[in-house]
Specification:
Blueprint lengths: L2 H14 L13 H7 L1 H7 L3 H8 L4 H4 L2 H5 L3 H11 L19 H9 L14 H4 L18 H6 L3 H6 L35 H6 L11 E2 L1 H5 L20 H5 L39 E2 L10
Length: 299
């Protein structure tokens, strides 16, 4: 038989037989993925998913490596092979992790199939879930770069970005305190995605000395720290919402302590003029006092 006949027979088999023996739903293994996605392989083997799935898979799903998250690769491989042969076919099968709110359910469902406990247990129905956010809106997959959580949060919360730039702020700018120090972006049982049940409990996690119990307690302090302090930033000392005297007099009448300077001309007068316009000059224990004579928070 002449060589030309072999060529004709081979061409006929290629055109008549299916391009591959893969069936929809077949898992191919990570090596097939690496054959094309070489740039992703390098990053994947450095991130937490790649290290666990490749080096120490804990179950059957993790042992599937790339396909644990992206699904069976058979149809995608067939499409890629056909494209190499010159056919104009879409390369994707619809894999998860596409941008856009319309894909958030598919994206998040894949992530939550593993990440459904601990910090993620309150995601369903949380404010970010209801807003249609996807996990990939905040998290970068296959990247060795450490994500700056503060920049991620302030990318949407522009008002808070402005507040942390103010002259009096907690240590957000130097990254010793992060948004996640107080908030759980994946949802919480409390308000405002707080890690703890209330604003005060969140504050007490660092400022335990303000917790008490105290013999003399300042009612607004016990009720809500944010009545006086703006935790994200302020142009006043100690994160106060207003300067001290104005803040105090937003609740307390100024009749007994008027805001006039005391001139000292009659020291015996019981005018109780506000000396130096600073309530804390006398009421230094404003958060509460344990002194038997500290009912006015003066000691």
């Amino acid at each position: 038989m002449k060589p030309i006949y072999y060529i004709v027979i081979a061409f006929t088999l290629i055109t008549l037989l299916p391009l591959s023996s893969y069936a929809e739903g077949d898992y191919l293994g990570e090596k097939e993925c690496y054959a094309c996605h070489r740039n992703i392989k390098k990053l994947y083997l450095q991130d937490i998913h790649g290290r666990i799935f490749t080096e120490n898979p804990r179950n059957e799903a993790e042992a599937r490596s790339c396909e644990a998250c992206h699904g069976p690769g058979a149809l995608h491989k067939d499409a890629a092979d056909k494209a190499d042969m010159g056919e104009k076919v879409p390369l994707g099968v619809k894999f998860p992790f596409k941008k856009g709110k319309e894909n958030s359910i598919d994206n998040n469902g894949k992530c939550l199939s593993c990440h459904e406990k601990g910090n993620h247990s309150n995601w369903q129905g949380s404010i970010h879930d209801m807003a249609g956010l996807s996990c990939i809106d905040c998290h970068t997959i296959h990247s060795k770069d450490k994500i700056d959580g503060i920049l991620t949060c302030t990318g949407c919360h522009l008002q808070k970005r402005a507040q942390v730039q103010r002259s009096s702020h907690i240590s957000i700018m130097d990254r010793s305190v992060k948004c996640t120090s107080c908030h759980n972006p994946h949802g919480s049982a409390g308000s405002k995605l707080l890690e703890f049940g209330s604003i005060n409990e969140t504050c007490y996690s660092c400022h335990a000395e303000k917790r008490g119990p105290l013999l003399w307690e300042h009612a607004p302090v016990r009720e809500d720290c944010s009545l006086c302090h703006d935790s994200h930033g302020s142009n006043n000392p100690a994160l106060l919402k207003m300067r001290t005297s104005y803040l105090c007099q937003s609740c307390h009448s100024a009749i007994i302590h008027p805001g006039d300077l005391y001139d000292g001309s009659d020291m015996s007068a019981k005018s109780n003029m506000l000396l130096g316009k600073g309530c804390l000059n006398c009421h230094s224990m404003i958060h509460g006092s344990n002194h038997p004579s500290g009912s006015a928070f003066t000691r």
